[in-house]
Every structure is written in C-alpha cells, then in structure tokens.
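Quick start: read one record
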Amino acid sequence: MKATVSANFKKYAKKTIVSIAVFAVTYLFLLFFAVGVTFLFGWLGIQLFLLYPSFYTGIACLGLMATGLTVLFFLIKFVFASNKIDTSHLTEITQEEEPALFATIYYVARTVETNLPKRVFLSSDVNAAVFYNSNFWSMFLPVPKNLQIGVGLINSTTQQELIAILAHEFGHFSQRSMKVGTYVYQANQVIYNMLYRNESLDNTFQSWANATGYAAPFIAISIFIIKQIQRILKKLYTYLNLNYMALSREMEFHADEIAAHVAGSQALADSLLRINFASSALESVLAFYDQKTKENIKSENIYPEHQFVMNTFAERHQYLIENGLPKIDLTTIRKYNKSKLNLENQWASHPSDEERIHALSQLNISKDKVASDHAILLLSKDAQITKAISDKLFSTITYESTPSALSLSLFKESFTAEFRKHQFDPMFNDFYDNNEPILTDIADNNEKETDLTFEDLFSNQKMDMLYTYASAQSDKFMVEAIVEGNIDLKTFDYDGIKYNKKDAPQVLEQINHEVTTLQDQIKESNKQVYSYFLNLAIYQNRKDEFLQHYQEYANAHEKHQEQLRLHNQLCEGTQFIFVTTPFEEISDKLKALQEPVSLLRKKLTHVLEQPDLRLQFSAEALPSIQKFIDNELVYFEANEYISENLEVLFTNINEYRVIIDNTYFISKKNYLQFMIDLEKSMEILTPVK
C-alpha cells in the first residue's frame, strides 16, 4: 500500500540518518581510542615488568592490561546484549483457536502489504503493539515480529475500529522508509546499553576488588576513562533521541494514514477518542477488586464487567451509545481542556490525540462498507478466551484463602453502590467535583435573595468556568517552569500567539490576572448558591438546619486543610530520601522530621480508636500502621537507610491521606445532599403552573 510520505517525514528521516552517521563516526573514534589504550597499556605493562621484574610490577602489568581490556569491553559489550520481551503475562493464540480474529489479522496484513506476525498474543489491557526480540544484529538481519492485542481493546472497539488499529500497528513496518526508525532505535539501544546497563562491568570491578586490594588504582583508572566516554555518549544520546522522537511522531502520522486507507479516517479517530476512556473503565474494575482482596473475592470475568462500567460512566457523562459502545467526540475532550498554552514536547514519541484526529479529518477517507459489530464477537465460543485471560490476571494476586468468584449481577449491584457512594448527586452537573462551597465572608450573604434558578447555578456555562480555571492553573504551572528554567525551549504559543522564552514572565503575569479573575467569579458563584439554598431553607422553615449543615461542613473543610498541611509537610520533608544526600544532611533532615512524624502517629492513633474509621484501612495496611504507632522507628543507621522502616513510614503517610480525604468527602457530600433535599422539597411544595 502506498501512503503519502510528508515533507516533515522526509526532513526528519534525513536528520536521523545524519544522526546515525554522527553516531557511527563518534563510536568508531571511541573504539579506535579504546583499542589504542588497550595496546598502550599492555605495552607499558610489559615494558615495566621487563625492566623491573618483580611481584609488584607483575601486578601492575596485569592491572594495566585489564584496564585496557575493560575499556574495550565497555565499548563492544552491546554486541552480546539482547532485549528479550517477557511474554509470561501474555496468552498465545493460534488460527485454529481463533479463526475469525486471525482472518481479520490476515486481511489487514494483506491490505497493508506487510508480513504476517510470527506469533499472536492476547494481553489483558486496552492496547495493541507489534514487538520483537532485538539485539545488535537486528540492524542487519530480518527479525520476525509478534502481534499483541489487548482483550480490553477488543472489548471496547467495533470490528472496523480494530481493523484500523491493527492497520496502524502493521503500518509501522510496511514501508521501506520505516526502516530508518529501526536503525535509529538500534543505535539508541547501543548508547543506552553503554550508559545504563553496566551490571556485568560492575560485577567485574567487584570481583577485582574482592580478589586483591592492589586492583583499586586500576579500577579507578578504568572508571575515569569510562566516565569520560559516557560524557560524550550522553550528549550523543540527547542529540540522537531528539531527532528520533521527531521522526517517531511523523511515523505515527504515517501509520495513521495507512490505517485510514484500510479502515477509514472515522474508525481510527473514534477508537483514539475512546481508548483512554476504556482504559480508565478497566482500571476502575481492577481497583474495585483490589478492595475485595481482603474478602477473598475475585472476578468471574472482568470483560463483561468492563463493558458494564464503560456504559455506567457513559451514562454519568451523558455520552451517546453507538454500536453498543460509548461515542466520544472531540468536542467532549475539548470541554475539559481549556488550555491556551501550546508547548512542543520534543521528547514525545507520539503526537497528541487531537493532532492525530485533526490529521485524519484532513485525509477524510471514508469507507462504504463498515463492520460496525462489536469486535469481541470475533472471539470464538462466546469469547471463552476472555475468562481465561481474566483468570490469568487474578492468578498473580495472593489471597488468604481460595477466592470466590463474584457473579456479573452481584458485581453490577456492588459496583453501582460503590460508584454512587463516591459521587455527588448528578443534579449538580459535576460543579462540586473540584470546587469547595466554602465562603470566607458568610455574613455578607445572610438571606440575600437571588433571581437565579437551580439550572442557572449549575449550568454548563458554570462548568466551563471551572474547566477554564483548572486549565489556567495548569498553564500557570507550566509557564512558571519556563521562567525558572525547568523547561528547555526557545519558543511557545499562548492564546494563538508565539512567544520567545524571554517573554515568559510577561505571559505569566497575563495568566495570573486570568486566574485571579476566575477565582473571583467562582467565589461569586458559591455566594449565589449559598444565598439560593438559604432562602429555600427559610421558605421551608429549615434555616437553622441549613446553617448547622453548612457549619459542620465548614468545620470539616478547615480541619481537612490543617490535615493536608501535615501531609504536605511529610511529603516535602521526605523528598531527600529519593535523591543522593550527604550523610550529615540525612541526619539533620530526619531530626527535622521527628515532630511531624510524631504528630502523624498521634493522628493515626486517634483514627484507630474510632471503629467506623478503622474499617476504612485496608487489611494489608493495618499491621504497618500498628507497627508505626507502637514503635519509634529508626530510618537511618550506620550510613544506610533501613528500607523496611521507610516502607512503613511511607505506607502510613499514604494511608493518612486516604483517610482524611475520605472523611472530608463524606462531610461535603452530607452538606450537598441536604441542599438537594431542599431543592426536591421545593419542587413538591411549588405548584406546577
């Protein structure tokens, strides 16, 4: 199949070829240098021993030879390395087992005009990929490729969409120009191996050190030379990768075009828009069963449950159902993302979904015949293989006793109850998902009447305001990073205007003004809501009840803010553990942590004393919490971290955050539910006109 090769593709392909050439020349220079060092050190060692034969000059001779050979080995060890993909979590299938699915795969391969995969595997997730075991010789010898298809993906696409996704994956290997990417990838792997995969070298140095103390100076010389080579390679790694990432993004557009020719632009666009949604739904199913581990309950089959959760989420967000699957369009995605900032991520291997969908719409390739049936129907015997994949996924979990399988009907009942438990009433139109109805000047709102209706207060326009505010906050964070030099770029776009890096402070000032304006608008909206419900309460003779509910919520909010300050103090105070820190500084920072850790211990002790709160802790976490409360743990001793105790500390910090968030959520929901009760009571009291 012939697909258009864009000017950008050609440009970046040329740049990557130049990158490969630069890499080859640099590598050959380093290799000749290493050979020269090996011969030089060997000659010096032999001459030294011949001039002054003794035990010590013999050691020096061997040490110099070993140093030269070590440097040489460092530069050629990648030839013997291989990257073998672990397939233990995958399930291989054959044409005899799944004839309909294989017929689809064969059809796509023939249409794309590429080779058939050597082996086909099913995974549990929402994904598809072509993979192969690679080594240095893969650049010169043909390597058979394997296909991996996620059952979660099959479960969340139509047959036409699955064809489009498979065509995209096969498209990466269908064009001769695509081989450039393979060469760049292998060159990249070579550098990565020399920079970060040095276990064999470290073991060699350790063996030398264990064998004799005389090895120390020669190890130091080897390490010094290798470090200098690595400094050169790191710069080359950055140069090569930036060009490779640019080419990779163009390769995605190219593969998308091939997929559009095979299955149509719309099929691939629809699948791209649904994949993240479907993945989130599957993760929600797995999270549900993660909480059921302590009850020794597993899934009967996660894929019918996955389908149910997708439809539940679709109903909650008012998505259309088309061909049995949620229909998500670009307008829906844009509703949540109001960002005005556009940064070109030079390290991104894929374009954004929006960029890809825009490119597909420009192609505008349609197909007369579309296979709109659910892709899961391609699997044989009523998709029995999905149960095997589901069982394999749960076989990796450790249960206290043999788990029982939850039926689909019980899952629906239990999941729906849990889902509603952690949601605010849909009448609020998600207005309070990321908005706290707290007032700083409540006295000014006492019985102030408003002409706004319930629908006005929680309209889509109000939600747009909140989404715009969230995006403005995100833009502010990113531009602050540009100002502070944490993001390296020359130009960026904001609100459709291109700016140089030096203009970032000016743009930040503009964003700060927008954030302040939106904050004022949100505060005003919260005042209007408060006045509306206060007047409803007065009309229904429930003013004192409303004020009590608000005050209980306000107290919970203030308490939660105090608890968050402790949590943030602990998180910030333990950051040094994750970076290289001098021993003396570690001791000082741990001393500074004693007070907040002691306070955390008191807070958790108080929580455990309350049976209803104690039940919110997972069975796995309770022993760790009890150990933390009962002991003054030592986290650093004899110049080493005590990993077991640190794990206990971090478990308690995380569990504390979970418990304070859950407790606050309940208080907030109680207040909001009382507001809903007032509104529904008003509907009963007000006669229909």
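The chain is about 65% helix and 5% strand.
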